[in-house]
Amino acid sequence: MGSKLVEKKRKSRETESESEDELADGAFDGVLSQSDDDFNDLDSEEDAHDQDDEDESASEKDADDDDALLSDDIPSDVDGEEAISKLLRETELEIEEPGVDPKRKEEDTEDRNYRIEKDANGNERYVYDEIDPVYDSDDSDAQGPVNTIGNIPLSFYDSYPHIGYDINGKKIMRPATGDALQNLLDSIEVPKGWTGLTDINTGNPLNLSQEELELVRRVQMGLLPDDLHDPYPETVEYFTSIEEKMPLSAAPEPKRRFLPSKHEAKQVMKLVRAIREGRILPYKPPEEREKEEEEQEEVHFDLWQNEEPQEANPMHIPAPKLPPPGYDLSYNPPEEYLPTKEEREEWEKLDPEEREKDYLPQKFGALRKVPAWDSLVKERFERSMDLYLAPRVRKNRLNIDPNSLLPKLPSPSELKPFPTVAQTIFRGHEGRVRSVAIDPTGVAVASGGDDGTVRVWELLTGRQVWSVKLSSDEAVNTVRWRPLKDSFILAAAAGEDIYLMVPSHASVAPALDQASREILAAGFGYATNGQQQTAPGKEPPAKWARPGAKLEDEGVLLRITVRSTVKVINWHRRGDHFATVSPSGQRSSVAIHTLSKHLTQIPFRKLSGLAQTAAFHPLRPLFFVATQRTIRCYDLQKLELVKVVQPGAKWISSFDIHSGGDNLIVGSYDKRLLWHDLDLSNRPYKTMRFHSEAVRTVRFHKGGLPLFADASDDGTLQIFHGKVPNDQLENPTIVPVKVLKGHKVVSKLGVLDMDWHPREPWCVSAGADGTIRLWM
Amino acid sequence: MAKIKRKGQTGNAKNYITRTQAVKKLQLSLPDFRKLCIWKGIYPREPRNKKKVTKSLTASTTFYYTKDIQYLLHEPLLQKFREQKALEKKISKALGRGDVSDAARWERNAARPEKTGKPRYTLNHVVRERYPTFIDALRDLDDCLSMLFLFANLPSTSAVPAKMIARCERLCLEFQHYLIVSHSLRKSFLSIKGIYYQANIQGEDILWLVPYKFNQRIVGDVDFRIMGTFVEFYMTLLGFVNYRLYTSIGLKYPPKFDQLKDEQGAELGAFMLEGVNIATDGETKAITDGEEHGPDPKVQAEVNKIVQQLKEDESNEMALVSTEEGEEENTDAIDKFEPVAPGGDILPQPSQSSSDTSQLFSEFTIYLSRETPRQPLEFILRAFGCKRIGWDSVLGEGSFTTDESDPSITHQIVDRPVVQATMSSNGDGEDNQTSQKLGPNQRYPGRIYVQPQWVWDCINDEELKSPELYAPGASLPPHLSPFVKTSQGQYDPTLPLEAQETEGEALDAELEDQEVEEEASDEEVENDMDVDSAEEKEDEEDAGSFGGFSGDEQEAEEDEEEDATLERQRELEAELSGKSVKSKPVDAKMKAKLEAKKALDKKAKEEAEDLERAKGMLSKKKRKLFEQMQYTNNKKSAEDLKLRSKRRKLEKEKAKVNGTA
What we know:
The complex is a heterodimer.
Chain A: H1 2-22, H2 27-39, H3 44-61, H4 65-73, H5 78-94, H6 102-111, E1 114-118, E2 124-128, E3 162-165, E4 171-173, H7 178-187, E5 194-198, E6 205-207, H8 210-221, H9 262-277, H10 286-295, H11 341-349, H12 376-389, H13 402-405, H14 412-415, E7 422-427, E8 433-438, E9 444-449, E10 453-458, E11 464-469, E12 476-481, E13 490-494, E14 497-501, H15 510-522, E15 543-545, H16 549-554, E16 556-561, E17 568-571, E18 577-581, E19 590-594, E20 599-601, E21 613-616, E22 622-626, E23 631-635, E24 640-645, E25 652-657, E26 663-668, E27 673-677, E28 686-688, E29 695-700, E30 707-712, E31 716-723, E32 733-741, E33 751-756, E34 763-767, E35 771-775
Antiparallel strand pairs in A: 1-2, 3-4, 5-6, 7-35, 8-9, 9-10, 10-11, 12-13, 13-14, 14-16, 15-16, 17-18, 18-19, 19-20, 21-22, 22-23, 23-24, 25-26, 26-27, 27-28, 29-30, 30-31, 31-32, 33-34, 34-35
Helix pairs in contact in A: 1-3, 1-5, 3-5
Chain B: H1 12-15, E1 16-18, H2 19-26, H3 30-40, H4 50-53, E2 63-65, H5 66-72, H6 76-97, H7 100-109, H8 113-116, H9 124-130, H10 134-139, H11 141-152, H12 162-182, E3 185-190, E4 195-201, E5 204-210, H13 224-248, E6 256-257, H14 259-263, E7 271-272, H15 278-281, H16 301-332, H17 353-357, E8 365-368, H18 374-383, E9 388-391, E10 411-413, E11 448-450, H19 453-461, H20 497-500, H21 503-521, H22 523-544, H23 552-577, H24 588-616, H25 620-660
Parallel strand pairs in B: 8-9, 8-10, 10-11
Antiparallel strand pairs in B: 1-2, 3-4, 4-5, 6-7
Function (chain A): Component of the NOP7 complex, which is required for maturation of the 25S and 5.8S ribosomal RNAs and formation of the 60S ribosome.
Region (Disordered) (chain A): 1-122
WD repeats (chain A): 426-467, 751-776
């Protein structure tokens, strides 16, 4: 575009020159050039306008299509561009003299008063113009062409065409008068509006109207082309320049106008104070100031001048100090601290994090041989990391002797005696031996088994002394001796029948035998005589009868028939009552029989859960009944529930009460043996889980030895030392002492029952393998 | 109606705050938060139950007390951090705009402690807050000193500006000066990591580690920004502690520091201590006495002598002054209460031994050889009363004398091997005093030559050790840590072995001896014995399981049976190999010992059984606790056992060597 513009400009110049040629008198030429010179500095728009006009006129004359096209192409703001192009042209024209700034030259040509000529030698020669003295110049010499006719009137030259002579003696011609010019103009007949220009479109001479001529005139005069705009309007003064004599307000001059400002004084004082205190320092170059700051020492003072000891925050945990170095850190340690080769290898093999110590003891013969410690910086760094990043936890170190934790146990010698070996094995039963019991005198053992027989054995020798077959199809579930020495009565249960018998035994004196028989017979004389008063239509809870001649000959003297199979018999300590439990009998599961009256009572009309076993308290009139989960204790005198013991076992198999009466052991089918302190809590005091199978029977030693044992289906008996102290505050001591192994496990049944000797630390056990063993 | 309790509104959920939460709450960047934590001594806590603390699913690792963080909110330093942050922003913005001049102007305001070593803030208030009393500050001085002494020995890098190092060094030296003047250094220990020192200031034991004077290698990833933050705080702390310590003994702080001397490597000697009331006295009290009389190395020996004598007089005077001071102190000290009439209780009093040890080396003039570590020796000797310490001029400025031949020298500390060959003396042409120097191994008469360890052992045992043990070239007695407090039953290398070993061990050892003797004659027997012992072990293990206790007599019988079978087996083996059956040469003594051992073993077994039984009766919790305790105890005793056996072996070897020699 730029190059096109330039091209176009060049063309327009050419056309201009053409038009110049065409203009014969050149009147317009001079006008235009003059306007150029004069109004160069003036509004460029004006310039552009007239250039535009000129261009237009030129283009009108020029028949070139391209030009017309180009001019059409030029956008509406062509005026401005034209102006620029004109300026450019001027400069282009004037860049004839290289190296000289064209503007500068222009000025020069105007200002300078000399010409440069070449002298004879070819050098530059400055020829100065003649000085033109201005009006107030005091140079009287230099004057323009002056009429030098002297002091004569001009009328003398009326007849001559000249009016005098100049300093060179040349005639000064009389200037043409108006008349003459008028005459000349009048002589030439010019049509109205004649311009001497040709319309390029028509080829006819271009005549200008009056308005157009006026426009040309205005341009010629350097005025704005249209006369509507007034460039010099009358000034309207913004402020009046007239000073008013009277003030607008009559208020007196305020005090602050003539009193010094307090606020300023304050500000000044502030600064003064700051300077005095050294907060504002006199200006110093920054470098100097920096240097000073660097040199400045840290200020020290007594930070703890008025120190007050503060209570340490209880939550604050001070950082633990590093442990002091030990012997092995020495540069010259005792030789035993040096690692052996294996230790060294082991240490090197470990990961650095896993090592117990981060160094190996080393020995240097002399101080000069000690090298720098490589990881010192790292260790320090780790310490600082610990200080700020490691969570601190207060850990109470138990500074106690570990042995003080251990309970004070009786020494093994104190624990003795307890059964250790199987002394005698009683064989004879066919099938399992269900129950076993040692008589109160401690000479005979009674047993009952699956073969339906009750056998009595001599304890020490294992000889069977007596036997009776109670039933051919029912097993003898339990045998129990009457716990008094004044009789020799054995109770046995087979099926729904309970038999009371007096076995014949070598040690039994005839008197004792007689006494026993009398005790059993006494009930027959009693009013009930086996027939209880019961409500009509209701079955009596039990029938007391003689078992028949055959059995009576054998010594079985009494049979009590209850409603369901009896599993447990437990005698009262006085021997008059005994309790039976038949777990399958719904309401009548627990029955208490009175031997002297041949009376059977069912104490519970309703029982929560299945009764498992029952027992009398050894000292007080209390009665314990175990259901599957709990053991309930009833007062027989007040007829009320005293206590419910909850061993937490799933299925209680048996329990036994300590002869002191305050402690209870419970065995359960879920392999547990539990010790209850009845005074302490309903929950077990100790739970022992040493068996791998169900615990069948638990039994305290009743003869004053601190022993108890349990029999389990895993074929073992476990003997414990269980001492109940006399002091109420002390807890009972329980020590496991012995596992008695010997019974074989037959179809998942091991030891079914066991009993202690009344005095000695011996016990007998009945196994599912058909044997009875005496342990001592 | 009771207020409804919601989860996460009270208790642990409120008491703890995670690190991210804390940073957000304080509106800080993580590095700034770290700095603040380090200075304010705020550390993470371990909540009892982490699950109750966090509401988020992701497990946070670091928890702080909310109260701690709240307390940080009021910290004036926080404002400084924020200002700094704003300034940094301005600078970066200006740079982004291209306003270099603006950026430069801001930059001038910005503190660049990593360049200048001087931050725009002070940590005074933080020190006071963390240590409300001076004693508190002393209690926490261990880490501070260790860190500053380490930094004083670090090379300067971009992370550790030289100014920081210089400042650390100065603070450390000032602290050392206090220890020298107050004679509060108690113990020192040469370890493989560096030199441990222990001082007692106002009843507080302070233990710190100073590295050996080597260029420290920096291994692993060590973040010097964190260390620098610590050092910044520690420098402030030690500055104030020093001030307090100096003023407490009537000295002016900071002491006059001689730049010129320091540049010549005078270290401790570059400081001149002044009394506080300098205006009234008008004279400075020089504590490091000998120093200001630096001897001219160019004067002749005789002139030297005279000067020396003069000096001695002066120093004696000084000593007198100090003893006078000592007497004054004695008036403050505790008087000894002697019971006048019998029958009263005896109340224990602290002994006055400290004043004695502080003057341990006061009588001596000690010369340090070129190869000895000058800085620790100078410090320790001065702290224990030595006034006149000389050393070779290569070790730096500030010595009492650089002339080795000085006749006033009583002790010379050397650390070089004894060279047997007598070489033609010296080629050191540059040295001025070559004429006075002696050849290698030649000694000046009338002075005691010792190795450096002598100094340490002397101060640790608080008595002058016999120098023969520490003679140059001699193999040194072991250097033991003075910080170990031996507890009952722990292995103590200072006691003879017999006093510490258990009965069983002694028996074992003796039996072993004899076995070793036998070993030479018959190896097979030994093999059998091994089998035997293995079986025995198995037996023991069996007995460990529950089963009550079996009769011991039974087992003993079994053992005997086993022995018998073994004997038979041995015979059979002998037959097979075609050797004649050797009856075991068992003398009566050996037999008795064997019996004793058997009895001991039996006893041990019984005890173990008892223990097992007793353990069976403990509750699970208590049993675990007990086992833990037993574990650590056993570990310790195993270590001791190992040490004892090693020592036994060593002693045996030594005895053998002696026997053969």
